[in-house]
Write a structure and sequence with these properties.
The complex is a heterodimer of chains A (1144) and B (96). Chain A has an 8-stranded parallel β-sheet. An 8-stranded parallel β-barrel of chain A has the order 13-14-15-16-17-20-21-22, surrounded by 5 helices. The two termini of chain A are 65 Å apart. Chain A has 39 helices and 37 strands. With 1144 residues, chain A is of the alpha/beta class. Chain B is built from 2 helices and 5 strands. In chain B, strands 2-1-5-3-4 form a 5-stranded mixed β-sheet, covered by helices on one side. In chain B, strand 1 and strand 2 form a beta hairpin. The longest helix of chain B is centred in the C-terminal third of the chain and has 9 residues. The N and C termini of chain B lie far apart (35 Å). The chains are: A alpha/beta (1144), B alpha+beta (96). At the A-B interface, strand 28, helix 34 and helix 38 of A face strand 2, helix 1 and helix 2 of B. Strand 28 of chain A pairs antiparallel with strand 2 of chain B.
Chain lengths: 1144, 96
């Protein structure tokens, strides 16, 4: 019984052949074989000239166990053959190739199959190397030839360009329609080590874009080996409705003495592919470059007994661009469609279009991207201009320069078609309706099916625009029946727009229109839950003043989302978070929205009156009507530095008591600040602004205070302990305490106990505060307490620092000191403690009992790997090829801040260093804080750093010969390689993998020198000096922000230099494309800084310092081996692929 | 007061601790092979897979959710320094 290919695929995994190219070249084709010098290299000609060679190769693969072979037609298109001057022979050669393979296949008893191979060609249509039409015509010829020659399936393979895939698929469909034959259509993309196709598309985006095109297989081939394909195969396995094929190379090729070598032999390759087939549910496997019949022979017994896979894939409805997929439903809703790349809606856009400033038009799109739009609505309709041409020219630039998927906004079918040809991702077409019946809608839906796109549909029919709920639903039903029912679109690919009318005209007809729209949204959501809804929100406020528009748009959007709206077309930068709208404003706007008119009350009149004089961004004038005391408190809470001074003037002029102002009014404001910080409502950056306002207020009041006695509630002496340079925490305590009525003497960093004691004797503090970052400092604090005890002191001591724990302070530290000892987790706990101390009363503390060991180990395994005879962990592979450095010795660099910005972790700067955490704020409020305050602040600071030379980045790095000697790393002199320069002993894990950093380098016994890279970066003394200057000038916010940015920039400098080292060593192929993954060790090798878990002893810094001569760039080590200035860091750099962070 | 059991798979370590203790404290007290970095949820060094008892871990805050989402990892992965343990769990250390 003859089985078809499809039937075979339904039963079991199908085995394809391996590489063809090497097999052909092994035959040594000469100019004779090609026919002439001009034709040399055109392997497709061998189908005619050396038919027996090609048949022999096919036969070898069939004998090895392949179910199917690919025809020798990889470049066999008119365009491809045109390079050899024989474009006109394309059809003939395709037929010949398919036929000769057919002959071989038919010579077997069991069914064997011929797969028509269609290669990507040498031209990238997405980049404009050829036109859509030219490529379509070219592929049509090839497809026709393959069909004629008897191919069982068409395989569009080794694809690099999403645009080309769509053209080839369309050509195949056309050729099949013409020949009256339908055979399976397979597509395979080539995903590079970057994780995308050559033009930048990841495999999931490829899947979305092709989903509606009804192909049969979507898989991968070439570029990488089976291991590298795992992630992409997994993605397809989870999401693709199409069968998955996988034809990897025999591993990632290596350069061995000038030869390209593919590392995976037949058995290893077969094992990996079989495993992948079972694990990911593959339907078809085979091999690509580097594989030969032996590989297929090894695979046959391992894969042909695997049953056809059964998967339950899920693909989320998305739109895609060349570069990314964006889910149509975003969390939180709505998905934002930017509206400024629209000639109908934006004057700026229209003007640039009229001038044909395509680059300017692309800038507008990029701006929308920055503002947070998820998709872009593109409309170039301009009366008098050629819309098709404009769309063509604009998209040819937009598609490659902008990440966002596009919504093609046009009423003209030719314009839509041109756009869909230019934008190869999965776009959204805006829109269809039934205004003139169904004919045009059907044409547009045909386009969507041909090119692959979702569709926006408006509730408009032959009677006009639907204004009532009933009419909207009736048209919606008609739309669903057409688009989902008849055309077979997935429900989520239909986006219904139930229309938004303006409430600004007062027109009776439209008074209830918003209610009807909102009800329609909810009804559509309930009745067709898979279908999406979309609105052009700003239409609701057309005709009103800007201030009214912003508020009405915000509330319409809010309620629409509550009623189920998924997508909205609006200007992301102009919407106010609902939580920020004044309650009175909100009421009248919502009354307008929901048409809550009553006797003598028309919300529209109220809106017009209230908003007519208001400027768009006017702040709520809550202060009007508030008593002065409350205003002052509000000024502190909101960090109003200038306003508070004005209000203080007013209070003083009215005869207020200065002391009372500080102690009862302003401090009460700070108390609220402390409470909100504690509850997570207010974040540190805002706390600092309040502190600055407080400082400004006090500075104004101070001259008015009575000379005798101080306003201070108490005195505290602050110091960072000996050997520790970290003082941001201590300085924050200074800021908070001094602005809450305490007098603070800040001694600074690296304070030995003698200095602290001397200062205390001179000044008589009510408490001493000790801080420090390092673990070592916790021990020093305890020693300091012992000293205090010996010298007979009993002053209260407050301890703070990242490495401290409450238990350590309350148990261990209290044991050695008789006076009160407290642990303060943050500045506000320090404040509360000072307030208690100042209040008098009993503050004695006793050491708490160490609780019965609450954490108990119940069972511990004792697995530990063996060590080699050289004393290294056997877990580390020893056969990795050692890279060659571009030079030996030390080199110095001076990067600009901009170079470092590329590696700056902005998430950490904003959310951790600067403290803009979400806390208890809701998403909308928090997003507004990030967008309106935090992000612009970062931009400003980055610009300032450069413009004012606030940092002077410098770096030194070295490549040195090295060997491991047991636990030691031994560095040799590059000039005389047998001379030992320096050695360092590194710690080793006692259990588990028993790792030491030294294991990542070849042992002495290997007889070869390995390579150690070292790096040291600094932002210079200038940076440290600037931070100090800001602090001394009481510019708290600036100080805090600068310090946070500089600290992260130091990390960025380390990443930058490490990236450079990887590039120079040629191991950068594994570098992650996105920063977050890069920062999470998304690269080969690892850098190790002393003080961190793999090498905790900071003394190691001396090793690096001496080899790199850190003083040459102004870096010194303190007596506790920390680097000075603070914004410096150094590391050992290992290149070994297994090197990762670990702890001793 | 109830106790929870935490099984660290990498070194086959079973630890008992009071309900609600932070996973970081448990790992460090027991000497588990789990490397911590910044301890504030910003570096990813302590990334773990919760192979059992995911529901017994305290819910992640917005920062941790966003951090892990950017790495596109499955929902059973957490940053150990951010987790409090409210029931028995099994933990596999992934790291960076």
């Amino acid at each position: 019984m003859t089985r078809t290919l499809t039937q075979l695929m339904n039963e079991r995994v199908v085995l394809l052949d391996g590489g063809m190219g090497t097999q052909i070249f092994a035959k040594g084709p000469t100019i004779e074989d090609y026919g002439s010098k001009e034709l040399e290299g055109c392997v497709e000609l061998l189908n005619l000239n050396r038919k027996e060679w090609i048949q022999e190769i096919h036969q070898r693969y069939f004998e090895a166990g392949a179910d199917a072979v690919e025809t020798n037609t990889f470049g066999c298109t008119p365009i491809g053959l045109g390079e050899f001057g024989i474009a006109d022979r394309a059809f003939e050669l395709n037929v010949a190739a398919a036929r000769l393979a057919r002959e071989v296949a038919d010579s077997y008893d069991e069914p064997r199959f011929v797969i028509g191979s269609v290669g990507p060609g040498t031209k990238l249509v997405t980049l404009g190397h050829t036109t859509y039409e030219a490529m379509l015509d070219s592929y049509r010829v090839q497809m026709a030839g393959l069909l004629e020659g008897g191919a069982d399936a068409i395989l569009i393979e080794t694809c690099q360009d999403l645009g080309q895939i769509k053209v080839a698929v369309r050509a195949a469909r056309g050729a099949m329609a013409q020949a009256g034959k339908r055979i399976p259509l397979w597509v395979q993309g080539t995903v590079e080590t970057t994780g995308t196709l050559l033009v930048g598309t990841d495999i999931t985006s490829v899947l979305h874009s092709l989903e509606q095109l009804g192909i049969d297989v979507l898989g991968l081939n070439c570029a990488t080996g089976p291991d590298e394909m795992a992630a992409h195969l997994q993605a397809l396995s989870e999401a693709s409705p199409f069968a998955i094929s996988c034809l990897p190379n025999a591993g990632l090729p290596r350069n061995e003495g000038g030869q390209v070598v593919y590392p995976l032999g037949p058995e290893a390759f077969a094992d990996k592919v079989a495993h992948a087939a079972a694990h990911h549910g593959l339907a078809i496997v085979g091999g690509c470059c580097g594989t030969n019949p032996d590989h297929i022979r090894a695979m046959a017994p391992k894969v042909k007994n695997l049953a056809a896979p059964r998967r339950t894939p899920f693909l989320e409805r998305s739109a895609t661009s060349l570069y990314q997929s964006v889910a149509l439903r975003q969390e939180p809703a709505p998905t934002i469609v930017g509206e400024r790349t629209n000639a109908n809606g934006s004057k700026a856009f229209r003007d640039l279009l009229a001038q044909e400033d395509w680059d300017g038009l692309v800038e507008i799109a990029k701006g929308q991207q920055k503002e947070g739009a998820h998709l872009l609505d593109v409309c170039v309709a301009y009366v008098g201009r050629d819309e098709v041409r404009d769309m063509d020219l604009y998209l040819s630039k937009l598609v490659t320069q902008v990440q966002l998927p596009l919504m093609i906004d046009s009423t003209e079918v030719p314009v839509i078609e041109k756009a869909l040809q230019r934008a190869p991702g999965k776009c959204i077409v805006n829109s269809i309706n039934f205004e003139d019946g169904e004919a045009k809608a059907r044409k547009i839906l045909d386009l969507c099916k041909t090119y692959g796109a979702s569709i926006v549909a408006l509730t408009i029919d032959e009677e006009g625009m639907a204004k009532t709920l009933e009419r909207k639903l009736a048209i919606a039903e008609r739309l669903v029946n057409l688009v989902v029912g008849e055309y077979g679109f997935a429900p989520g690919d239909l986006l219904i727009d139930p229309l938004t009318f303006t409430l600004g005209s007062g027109d009776e007809e439209f008074r209830g229109s918003a209610v009807a729209t909102l009800d329609a949204l909810a009804a559509i959501r309930d009745r067709w839950p898979g279908v999406n809804t979309i609105l052009g929100v700003s239409n609701v406020s057309f005709g009103l003043t800007p201030a009214a528009r912003h508020t009405l748009n915000a509330l319409m959007l809010y309620h629409a989302v509550q009623h189920g709206l998924e997508l909205a077309i609006f200007n992301a930068s102009k919407v106010i978070p609902v939580a920020a709208i004044e309650p009175e404003d909100r009421k009248i706007i919502e009354d307008l929205l929901f048409d809550r008119r009553s006797e003598g009350y028309d919300p529209l009149k109220e809106v017009l009156a209230r908003f007519s004089n208001r400027k768009a961004e006017a702040k709520a004038d809550r202060r009007v009507g508030l008593p002065l005391d409350d205003r002052l408190k509000l000024d502190i809470i909101e960090g109003e530095k200038r306003q508070v001074v004005a209000d203080v003037e007013e209070a003083l002029a009215a005869g207020a008591d200065p002391l009372r102002l500080i102690n009862e009014v302003l401090l009460d404001g700070m108390k609220t600040v402390g409470e909100r910080f504690g509850s997570g409502e207010m974040q540190l950056p805002f706390v600092l602004e309040s502190a600055e306002a407080m400082k400004a207020a006090i500075a104004r009041i101070e001259p008015e205070l009575p000379k005798e006695g101080s306003a201070a509630k108490g005195r505290i002496l602050l110091a960072t302990v000996r050997g520790d340079v970290h003082d941001i925490g201590k300085n924050l305590v200074d800021i908070i305490l001094s602005n809450n009525g305490f007098e603070v003497k800040n001694l600074g960093i690296k304070q030995p106990m003698d200095s602290i004691l001397k200062a205390h004797e001179d000044w008589k503090a009510d408490a001493i505060g000790l801080s420090g970052l390092l673990v070592k400092s916790t021990v020093i604090m305890r020693e300091n307490l012992q000293l205090l005890e010996e010298q007979g002191f009993d002053v209260p001591v407050i301890l703070g620092g990242a490495a401290l724990t409450r238990a350590y302070v309350e148990q261990d530290c209290r044991k050695v000191y008789g006076g009160p000892v407290f642990y303060a987790e943050d500045a506000f706990e320090g404040l509360r403690l000072m307030q208690r101390i100042a209040a008098g009363g009993d503050i004695s503390t006793a050491p708490t009992d160490a609780a019965a060991p609450a954490i108990q180990v119940l069972h511990r395994g004792d697995r530990a790997v063996a060590l080699t005879t050289s004393g290294q962990s056997t877990w580390v592979r020893r056969d990795e090829p050692i890279p060659a450095p571009p030079f030996w010795g030390v080199k110095e660099l001076s990067p600009s801040p901009e170079e470092l910005y590329a590696f700056l972790d902005e998430f950490v700067v904003l959310r951790q260093r600067w403290g803009y955490a979400q806390g208890t704020q809701d998403d909308a409020t928090f997003q507004a804080v990030l967008k309106d305050k935090a992000e612009p602040e970062l931009l400003r600071w980055k610009a300032r750093l450069q413009a004012e030379n606030l940092v002077t980045p410098r770096a030194r790095y070295a490549y040195l010969p090295v060997n491991a000697d047991g636990d030691d790393l031994v560095v040799f002199d590059p000039v005389s390689p047998d001379r030992e320069l320096k050695r360092i002993t590194l710690p080793r894990q006692a259990l588990g993998r028993r790792l030491s950093i030294a294991d990542f380098f070849a042992p002495l016994s290997s007889g070869t020198r390995d390579l150690l890279a070292l790096q040291l970066v600094t932002l210079g003394h200038e940076a440290a000096a600037h931070a100090q200057a800001l602090y001394k000038a009481d510019a708290y916010s600036d100080y805090y922000h600068f310090h946070g940015l500089a600290t992260e920039l130091t990390e960025a400098a380390a990443e930058w230099l490490h990236a450079r080292i990887r590039r120079e060593l040629g191991i950068h192929a594994k570098d992650a494309k996105d920063l977050r993954t890069l920062f999470s060790q998304g690269y080969q090798g690892s850098r190790y800084s002393f003080g961190y878990p793999a090498c905790p002893d900071m003394e190691g810094n001396a090793f690096i310092q001496e080899l790199l001569q850190g003083d040459a760039i102004g870096v010194h080590l303190t007596e506790s081996f920390q680097m000075d200035p603070e914004y410096s860091t150094s590391a050992l750099v290992a290149w070994h692929p297994q090197a990762r962070y670990f702890s001793i | 007061m109830s106790a929870v059991k935490v099984h660290f798979l990498l070194d086959d370590l079973l630890v008992q601790a009071p309900l609600g203790t932070s996973l970081q404290e448990i790992a460090e007290a027991a000497g588990a092979d789990l490397t911590f970095g910044c301890r504030t949820g910003s570096c990813g060094t302590c990334r773990v897979r919760i192979t059992e008892g995911l529901a017994h871990c305290s819910a992640p805050n917005a920062e941790e959710r966003e951090f892990l989402a950017a790495l596109k990892v499955p929902a059973d992965q957490r940053l150990a320094c951010q987790v409090r343990v409210n029931g028995d769990v099994a933990v596999d250390y992934i790291g960076l």
